[in-house]
Amino acid sequence: MLGEAFIDRSLASGTQLLNIHRLEWDETILELADITADHLPTLVNETEVIGELPIKIAKLTGLQKGIPIFPGGSDGALNNIGLGAIKEGIAAMNLGTSGALRVVTNKPYLDKDQEAHFFCYYAGQGHWLPGGAISNAGILLKWFKDNFGQQEIDEAKKFKVDPYELILKKAALIPPGSNGLLMLPFFSGERFPIKDPKARGLLFGLTLSHGKAHITRSILESIVFTIRWIMESIQEHGAKIEEVRVGGGGARSSVWRQIQADILGKPVVHTKVEESSALGAAMLAAVGLGIYPDLDEASNKMIKTTGRHEPNLRNYQKYGAIYKLYKDLYFASKKFYEELSRIIAVNNE
Question: What is the pTM for the complete model shown?
Answer without folding.
Answer: 0.95
